[in-house]
Specification:
By secondary structure, the protein is mostly helical. The protein has one domain: Four Helix Bundle (Hemerythrin (Met), subunit A) (Up-down Bundle). The protein is built from 4 helices and no strands. Helix 1 packs across helix 3, helix 2 (about 30-45) packs antiparallel against helix 3 and helix 2 (about 30-45) packs parallel to helix 4. The longest helix is centred in the C-terminal third of the chain and has 26 residues, at about 80-105. It is elongated and about 50 Å long. The termini are far apart.
Length: about 110
């Protein structure tokens, strides 16, 4: 129930910049890959205990994840793009907890 309200707000915020990117010829896949790269940086920052930069990268990753979908809607979605988006999202979702787990791992005596 809350999702539909959040989705409407997200669309109002992202549709204008997405339409501009689509007019400029920026493919949604490029936005997806850039967002994923920033997400990977967050995992590296987490494992280095640099929590401020990690949070900034996570927030930017989430913003770009919404933006790639809006660009795809503006330019015309593709099955390949949808697969790339969900696959890289899953890698990102696994990478952050893994980075935190590596951080808390203690060597055995």
């Amino acid at each position: 129930m809350l999702d539909q309200h959040m989705l409407a707000l997200q669309n109002r915020i992202l549709d204008r910049p997405a339409a501009r990117l689509a007019r400029l010829g920026v493919p949604a896949d490029a936005v997806t890959i850039i967002g994923f790269s920033i997400g990977l940086a967050s995992a590296a920052f987490l494992s280095a205990q640099a929590y401020g930069p990690a949070l900034a990268c996570i927030l930017l990753n989430r913003l770009l994840d919404g933006l790639d979908g809006a660009v795809a809607r503006a330019a015309g979605p593709t099955d390949r793009g949808a697969f790339l988006d969900i696959a890289l999202d899953f890698f990102f979702y696994a990478g952050c907890p893994l980075a935190l787990r590596l951080l808390t791992r203690r060597p055995t005596p």
